Amino acid sequence: MVVVGAVASLATLRMASPVRAAVGPGTVEVGAASVVDGSTTVALPPLGRIVASTHRAPVRLGGRLDELDVERLQVLLSAPRAQERITEDVQADLPDLLRRFVLRSLAAALLVGGVAGALVPRRRLVHAGLGAAGGLAGVGLVLVWTWQGYDTGAFEEARFEGALERAPAILEAAQRSVGDLDRVSGLVQTLSGQVAGLYAATDLGGATGETLILHVSDIHSNPLGVELVEQLADSFDVDAVLDTGDLTSYGSPVESRISRLIEDIDVPYLFVPGNHDSEENRATFAASTGITVLDGDQARVGSVRILGVGDPTFTADNRVSTAAANERKEQLAPRVLAAVRRDEPDLLAVHDLRQAADVAGQVPVVVGGHTHARSSRSEDGTTFLTVGSTGATGLGSFLVETALPYEAEILRFDGRRLAAVDYVTLVGVSGDFTIERQVVVDPDAEDEDQDEDAGDADGGTATEADGVGG
């Protein structure tokens, strides 16, 4: 009976053991299951999990972060000694959770062992007692074995699964982040000075009284991208920043903390949400003192009227396929056209140009992002522009070794008309950068050389390009 109780209790350990409780700024679930090789698994949805061979006992321990109190975490992170405070909170809460886990496992073992003993042929009360004792002894011995042989050092050789496979490299890059931010700042300042000289030498300087709008997109939670935006905004003395979406990557609430960096930018920051920006993060950005969210709304920068229409889809959690999202945008394109006809903006800002499929000939300029690639075309008097990723596609390029470029463009308006576009490309933090000016031809202006100009880029623009190495 003792053996029967022990086997039954160990077999049902998975179902009996899970315990949830608040630990620090989050809610954690702890459980166990009988396996051949002992290990500990720490799950961090949706990023993946960490697996370490921490003990020899035939049981797998599991911990799972189920919820995160973002407001409490933000308070802790903003306080002095943030890391120490969080550690203290976790250390205070964790022992109680582990005690509850052990007591629940032992109580379940007692119950399951007793039931198993009572169900054997020729049932007697003593069988139930022996089964309960066997269950208690079996689970108790396994827990003691696990505790005595537990090796926390095994996490130094842990296996990462899911998105966390990149965690070691990302953490290593994060340790270098402060120095990299300083390097980016210096590089952009150097770029600005050389560009000023370039303009003076080539007569590319701006006209007096023009309105400058810095167009950025697809930062994808990369703080270096925000640093680049701040430096460009300051160096080129722009009147506003226009961000056409995907400020975040996963849509997780903790990513919204990037808004704190944006609050340091001294000019208005207009934000048009993208398909990686969740509803929760959109609301957080709207509440930020440094960001103005445009989603069906208008803003005015100088004399330029801007209509922003956010992406109607959220695809970061993979619940909506790319094909379904694209179809949704195309279905809603007539609504965007109706908004353009109603508000008569000088500039329409969307995340994905699919949203603006019907507006050719109805608005002078349309800008977007989404594709992580630069494009420029003219159709029926409307100039369509996309900018590459200002975050170099985000966290993946936080690893300095990558050669993906950070991209942005400065829209230069003469009154309400787009006169020129300055396209800036910075490759990693290597210092290689280029700036290219695209002069936009006024379709209403009389030009004796119209036939010759029609041979320039995109049928409606003339381009002057210069590269500057830094």
TrEMBL record:
It comes from the Bacteria. The lineage of its organism: Bacteria, Bacillati, Actinomycetota, Acidimicrobiia, Acidimicrobiales. GO terms for molecular function: metal ion binding; UDP-2,3-diacylglucosamine hydrolase activity. Residues 213-373 form the Calcineurin-like phosphoesterase domain. Keywords: Hydrolase, Membrane, Metal-binding, Signal, Transmembrane, Transmembrane helix. The chain crosses the membrane at residues 101-120, 127-147. Pfam families: Metallophos. Residues 443-456 have a biased composition (Acidic residues). GO terms for biological process: lipid A biosynthetic process. The keyword Signal applies. This is Calcineurin-like phosphoesterase domain-containing protein. Residues 459-470 have a biased composition (Low complexity). One of its GO terms (cellular component) is membrane. PANTHER family: PHOSPHODIESTERASE YAEI, TRANSMEMBRANE PROTEIN WITH METALLOPHOSPHOESTERASE DOMAIN-RELATED. It comes from uncultured Acidimicrobiales bacterium. Residues 1-21 form the signal peptide. Residues 441-470 are annotated as: Disordered.
